[in-house]
Amino acid sequence: MDYSIKGNDILVHENDFDLDDTLDCGQAFRWKKIDYDYDCTYEGYFINDYLRISQTKKGEFIFHDTDENTFISKWLDYFDFNTDYSELKRQFSEDETLSKACKFASGIRLLKQDSWECLVSFIISQNNNIPRIKGIIDRLCDHYGGEFPAPQQLAKETPDSLAYLRSGFRAKYIADAANRTAEGTTDLAAIAKMPIDEARTELKKILGVGPKVAECVLLFGMYRTEAFPIDVWIKRVLAEYYPDGFPSFAARDAGIAQQYLFHYIRNLK
DNA sequence: CGCCAGGACGCCC
DNA sequence: GGGCGTCATGGC
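Predict the joint structure of the above. Result:
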């Protein structure tokens, strides 16, 4: 990756990065495609830091109204620019199915999101669809002046007071996650550093957090790339292409491989 | 009307 | 430990 400064913007050259693949693949829910100009432009947030970003063509990006310091300290890490995705895909491509999946949506990258926002987002995601997940999170942030609420703010709420979210049975799960995190019963920063099985156990103590949500929080919110969320789509991939198990050579970054497979199987035929 | 959506819980055996 | 109904809400 290399970048340059142009006026108030940062221009970035980076292959293996596509905005549509990365921001609209169901790993993050607060990015919105806006159609001003360029090939595509999104606006969204990392926690509560706003960004407008454009892709002008393959491999070229504009981080609008961003100074160098902000780019280096925030977005470089968030978009995982320090990871060599070409090399990762080269490794994955030893496997035939993974090879096809990597070619299908080759611009997917793992976003290094905030663990708390990720926890709430994937609690909401259960038995739900992406447009509605986005709607619920929109209403949540609107309620707090456009910012994602901190655990301490949400801990004051009850399932009843959260009715405006129209999140259904998930409201009591959100309330429990907020209470535990606010009072320290759940320590997300500590969990992020635990051995992964211990981290899984700790996350699943939260009401409404089962194997799938715990795995998503580990992968998307704590950058534990060995975490491997198994949803209905990945279940189909495993049954159809990996009856003898997922290849062990990909285990260390199985979560990233999972991203390619998820996108591939969902858009197949 | 029924079915499904990046599941988890409670209860049953 | 596996199997199954239920849980809100909204789009199709």
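The beta strands of chain A are 2-6, 9-13, 32-34, 40-46, 49-57, 60-64.
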